[in-house]
């Protein structure tokens, strides 16, 4: 076909609106993808999330600033080869009969809330307070894992179309703990296996566990499936602590065992494992999208929790 200047002009004029509409559809589709895979899936504070390397550097800086009580630990490699890191807060030399507290963040990589990665710095900053110095003087330890699923976290942070909630092997880490009630062995992934090996190697007992997730607005205690059993005295203990935390954190959170809060069963969840392995007071906290604004409440909650643990160990 042969075009002259006028026919080419008419053709361009005809296709220009089509091109504009196509561009609008493309941008709308791109925005939809970003919302679906990023903003709606993200439960963070809305600010740019730090890289995993920056979080590691922060832990290293805390170790340098508080050498007497802060130690950065590498407890393995993720599926994609990233260091699995934890911050241990403990007085040196370590005591063999230590009771430990475990704080976990971003076990689902797309559920970062900018809470757990700030707790270490805050705790070290108030380490002279009697409630915390007394806790550490008794030989107790705090283990903080800011990002338990670094591969999923980096995929979420970079908006990659790769596993975010799950690890790089597409395994949900909060279903990868041994199911003690049935005798089923799991711990199939380096992230969960490395964590348990660290605790088994370092501590005699885990007394308290908090596993931070997002964004249902709930505080769940153990009980992920119908074969799980908890004596009434332990259930009442969890309920009493949960009610105290409810008053400290914010008023609109649901309290209950895991299966009643999320309304489905789950085998291999972390809080069930830690309760049945150590009889630890164990909670899964489901925050909200703006949870970072509530950090002062989380600080108050941890003062309450560590005081209660210390009192229980007297």
Tell me the layout of helices and strands.
Elements (H helix, E strand, L loop, with lengths): L4 H35 L12 H14 L4 E8 L5 E7 L9 E6 L11 H10 L4 H8 L3 E5 L4 H8 L32 H13 L2 E10 L3 E4 L10 H17 L5 E4 H5 L7 H9 L2 E7 L7 H19 L1
Helix pairs in contact: 4-10
Structure in words:
The chain has helices at 5-39, 52-65, 116-125, 130-137, 150-157, 190-202, 232-248, 258-262, 270-278, 295-313; strands spanning 70-77, 83-89, 99-104, 141-145, 205-214, 218-221, 254-257, 281-287. It is an alpha/beta fold and 314 residues long. The protein has 2 domains: 1-40; 49-313, 3-Layer(aba) Sandwich (Aminopeptidase). It has an 8-stranded mixed β-sheet, with helices on both faces. Helix 4 (130-137) crosses helix 10 (295-313). The protein is globular and about 45 Å long. The model is unreliable at 5-14 and 23-46 (pLDDT under 50).
